[in-house]
Design brief:
alpha/beta, five-stranded mixed sheet, 6 helices, 7 strands, disordered N terminus
Length: 202
């Protein structure tokens, strides 16, 4: 009996150690902080002027509004409302990020310098703009592969349909909403969602 009890205790210790090792490997722990770190921004991209950026590091603790943008689209005037959101909420933790893309009607044909000049001169854009990338297909960047795949973003998956689709990402890096191109940045629906996420702590 004594040997059986000892064997049971040894088994329990081994199981506990195995579970602890598994938790450490996956970043989980009983005494870990009570917030998750969403993977949506765990990618590296370049800014419009060619500087490499770790998105998770740059936007840590921020609410991010991610928009695929174009300069010659019927929705291009949304740049003005996006800039207004940036000016109103940046200090409260909102990061508006424009992602130029030329996949829809060839409506973003310009070079990086041309895109920057267009945005600055026509809409006074001061929020962040990334390099021009593909957001659909095999050549799409890692960020958009994540955002559009059912395996990684089941609730909001699906190919980008047109310019100025929007993803809202909370302070923990989780995708919490997706908006079609026609949904204006200044709409009550979007503003309420942004304000709700900004009201939540990091």
């Amino acid at each position: 009996m004594r040997r059986i009890a000892l064997l049971a205790m040894l088994t329990a210790v081994l199981v506990a150690n195995h579970c602890q090792a598994a938790d450490e490997a996956t970043g989980k722990s009983d005494d870990a902080p009570g917030k998750s770190e969403g993977p949506a921004l765990k990618f590296e991209m370049s800014t419009l002027d060619g500087k490499k950026v770790d998105l998770a590091e740059k936007y840590a603790g921020k609410v991010v509004l991610l928009v695929n943008v174009a300069s010659k689209c019927g929705y291009t005037p949304q740049y003005a409302a996006l800039q207004e959101l940036h000016e109103k909420y940046a200090e409260k933790g909102l990061a508006v990020v424009g992602v130029p893309c030329n996949q829809f009607g060839g409506q973003e044909p310009g070079t990086a310098d041309e895109i920057q000049e267009f945005c600055s001169e026509n809409y006074g854009v001061t929020f962040d703009l990334t390099e021009k990338v593909d957001v659909n297909g095999e050549k799409s960047c890692g960020l958009y592969k994540f955002l559009t795949s059912e395996e990684t973003n089941k609730e909001f998956a699906g190919p980008i349909k047109w310019n100025f689709e929007k993803f809202l990402i909370d302070r923990q890096g989780n995708v919490v909403a997706r908006y079609a191109s026609r949904v204006k940045p200044e709409s009550e629906e979007m503003v309420k969602a942004i304000e709700a996420r900004l009201a939540k702590p990091e």
